[in-house]
Amino acid sequence: MDFIKGTKYIGLWLLLGLLVGLLSGSASAVFLIALDWATDFRESHLWIIAFLPLGGFIIGWTYDKVGQNSIRGNNLLLDELYEEKQPIPLRMTPLVLFGTIFTHFFGGSAGREGTAVQMGGSLADQVNKWIPISSENRRILLISGVSGGFASVFGTPLAGAIFALEWMHTGKLRWKSIFPAFWAAWVADWICELGWGVGHTAYEIPQVAPHTFVNLLWIIPAGIIFGLAGKLFAESSHFFSKTFKERISYPPFRPLIGGLLIALFVWISDSTVYLGLGVPRIVEAFQTPLPWYDWIAKTGLTTFTLGAGFKGGEVTPLFFTGATLGNSLATWIPLPLALLAGMGFVGVFSGATNTPMACTIMGMELFGYESGVYLAIACLIAYVFSGRSSIYSSQNLDKKVKIFPKKE
Which sequence ranges are marked TM in the entry (predicted)? Predict the structure, then answer.
């Protein structure tokens, strides 16, 4: 009987995981191609930033009219995993795709992981309409969709699977989710990179410091700082979102006014470094010293952009924040600049999302396994010192209750 059940389980999830991987990987590929086009156009026609308020109004109006619960984004996926209420609407996929491309096209500061994760989760949940499955299997489908979306947008299949399992934590790890998550992540990454020919940014840590006691001790202050930076990012995101909602009652006016203020910032500062994903700056952080305030500027501009109602993700801006913060720490922490940038890259991400295992694996996939010890310790310390903060308001943080009890 166990053999028969096991065979049915493998057969079912080989099929469903393949389908989810194909859908999420293809969606990410189309998204990345469109995002590159939008970014290239903006950088070649900087005058378009003046129309950011108009772009914001269009995004806000569209979500207000047809978005319904899709406006909750990643938090909707988490809520459905914790307590099944209603299907993830298919409209989430085109809405978040359109909203994110508009945000980057006109000059907002945002990321891409949120878009890929939401598209992956939304498309995966549609499978339930075509192939009726149990409530438990639907949750596994959602985890697989998130896994495929994350893996394909960053080119990190191992981290994508672990992120989905760790991020969508419900108090216990369902062993039945493990194979579908890894299988969907692998398929999605393969489809995006090999099937569609969409590549990913390469990062390099050319020198890893020896694992001496003194060098390892230096990870502690760095990890603490990365955790506090992750906490600042999360708290700032919630602050701006709450402020815009309290001060501006008509939703389309929030990104309109936010877009106007961002456009004024760009005009006054005469710099576009902190717009969009900021990938060129992230690459620079591994190569040469940068202004110490880069991480603060990116944190402020991204949390303001998303808080105003523009669409996109937080993860790539968190990479920017972490890499540039690690870069600035190289002036007083005697570790290689690129290593500190890499530690910050994943450390701040760990602190803001409470996913230290996924962040560690992602760092090793991107930078090489030689830096694994430094990355793992930095991610763990950042996770602990970020407290009960998270960029996802619906994330289950009960696993941190013993360290940081809930406030009564």
Answer: 12-34, 46-63, 140-165, 177-196, 216-234, 255-277, 332-354, 366-385
Contact 82, 396 (CB under 8 A): yes
pTM over 0.90: yes
pLDDT (0 to 100) of residue 1: 47
Site of tokens 């603490």: 224
- 32 burial (CB, 10 Å; 0-12 / 13-18 / 19+) is buried
Label residue 395 left, alpha or beta by phi (over 0 means left) and psi (-120 to 50 means alpha): beta
Integer Cα distance of 108 and 102 in angstroms: 8
Interval 298-352: pLDDT, tens: 999 999 999 999 999 899 999 999 999 999 999 999 999 999 999 999 999 999 9
What the block records as the tokens of 255 is 């990104």
C-alpha dihedral sign at 116, 297, 363, 166: negative
Residue 376's contacts (CB-CB under 8 Å, 6 or more residues apart) are: 356, 360
Give the span between the Cα atoms of 346 and 162, in whole angstroms: 14
Query: Which domains are seen in the chain, by residue range?
Result: 2-195 (1.10.3080.10), 213-400 (1.10.3080.10)
* Strand, coil or helix: 330: coil
Mean pLDDT to the nearest integer, 77-98: 77
CB of 144 closer than 8 Å to CB of 150: no
Amino acid at 256: L
Q: Which two tokens stand for residue 246?
A: 């309290």
Best CA proximity match to 276, nearest among 114, 150, 102: 102
* Residue in this structure with the two tokens 């978040």, named with its chain if needed: 96
